[in-house]
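Forwarding these from the shared drive since the link keeps breaking.
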Amino acid sequence: MTDNVSNKQDILEKYREAGRILKIVRAEAVEMVKVGGSLLNVAEFVEKRTIELGGKPAFPCNISRNEEAAHATPKAGDSDVFGKDMVKLDLGVHVDGYIADSAVTIDLSGNSDILKAAEEALAAAIETAKPGILTGKLGAAIEDSIRSYGLNPVTNLTGHGLSKYEAHDNPSVPNKHVEGGVLLKEGDVLAI
């Protein structure tokens, strides 16, 4: 029994360490996202800094702009620069396979309501998430927050579970109200 408790504590500590590294890298990378700044420089910085701090990239740094909802990654030699864009920076760090995944919206476009809606939707989902709650309730909290700004959520993307070496695992967390869903249980790790 002691081994199992110790193992859970070790796993939790690895998730926490990945999260600690991710928080530092994300904050530093956000400061680099400026009109005229290189997308490739940001992506390379994220990966290099993650390793410097003792983690490993869980997936390539994603930098999506404007209508690109997700999963855009600069390629080697990419010369794209930030304009007056709405930017989503999505990065992941793992420690021994245990992944922390975070995205942040950066407004270079002057549409601060989109940024506020995204932040409030995340806060509402986090406040709602606990063992015994259906993922559909998280989706409803997200959608309600976004719609309060007169905006529509991106519904063809979802949050998701994280597990050892799996950056996209079950359960799926919708960005809109759905009936039912998956019942959250203690120990679930989510990217919302």
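-- next protein --
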Amino acid sequence: TLLERILRQFHVAINPRYRANQQGFGETYCNIYTWDATRALGAEIPHWVNGRGEPVGPGQGGELDANTTIEWLRRFGPSYGWRPVTSAARALDVANLGYPVAASWYNPGGIGHLAMVRPGKPDLERGIPIAQAGARNFDDGYLWDGFIQGSTIEFWTHD
């Protein structure tokens, strides 16, 4: 599908742009991958925003990490075409129709996480297909390969 081709073009598993710990401070780049993928899909989840939550160019506003990106989705996402999806099964249905879907975990005590839902079939043990940058980068993984099993995952789609 077009969605799958667009997600794969970034080669997140091997692309140095998304390699963890580039600066030696324990950073990961799930938010950068999500930003890149959603921009390519014409449905940007921004990495930089101004004080009104409007997407701006790099360095022109505040930089969002995973948690603040999720806060942006909750507060401003609907104004930019992003809406919540009720379940992982529904998120996969929407991705299988070719729409962008982001998976997110808000961590109030630390670093959150973002990933892109891929078209495909679920795995009974591992969940729905995703691609992600993070502590582990992969193009062909599943929800519980990238998120802590049992954690509350929010899904977002853009029509």
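The mean pLDDT is 94. The chain is about 25% helix and 20% strand.

- D.
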